[in-house]
Fold Signal recognition particle receptor subunit beta.
Amino acid sequence: MASLSPQWEFLGIQFSLTILLISLLVVVLIPIVLSRVLVASTSKTGPSSVVLLAGPREAGKTSFLLYLQEKTLVATQTSTTPSTVKLSPTALESSKSEDGDSSAFGKPFHLKDTPGHPKLRSFALTTITDPTASCLGIVYMLDSAAIIAQPRLTDTVEYLYELLLAVQKRYTVLSETTTTAEPIPLLIACNKNDLFTALPSAKISSQLQSELGRMKETKRKGLLNAGAGENDDEDLEQVLGDDRSDQITWEGLREFGVDVSLQSGSIKSGSVGGWTSWVSECLEA
């Protein structure tokens, strides 16, 4: 039976119109399909190595991110949207050699800068509470010179309480699904320690723990007044740390999935070595 498809011959090789059309479709369609699948997969899962940058307004979060990118101080404005930047391990080095070579090794990572305004803090909290989202560690940046003022202290502690509670919830969820859940490292980065009014890190650490304890006591009393006991499980989710005590200590929080560290530094003076070393440890863990 004669072929219904026209035949061509080129260099002694016969071609069928049907085969030619199918080949062209395959060549054109396969790259398109693969690219869509890869894009959809990336947007769904997000970056696999994220370090979250959070803290109250004007603490220096965006300045820190840009400092890691440019190795110099860059003027910034108040952020209103989150920004995720991919950085190489060399960004965590304190300096570069003259020829630009680096001894750093490891995979690139993502630093997610989130706004500090009270109405925009959900960006950071959602990143933490979503157990499927990557969060290798959290850098909570504060202004060690301004925290001496009560309004700034209250704002700083309120956000820190929300953040710690979100980490605790994430750890609880992961503990129910796996036996290898590890505490999430959280660094309290006390920025602007080069200023005359800056408090030392030991003083800030003590003050934060005391204020967190007072805030926990207030929230516990609020739950009791609202009729705690009717939904005990939900009520316990609102309590940071041990629900039998109002005291908050960094050591005690580790049992609930939060591994807190605290270090002073200054972006303006380039004293960020302690913070970058901490991030490096998170990436290597």
Q: What stands out?
A: The CA atoms of residues 93 and 247 lie 38 Å apart.
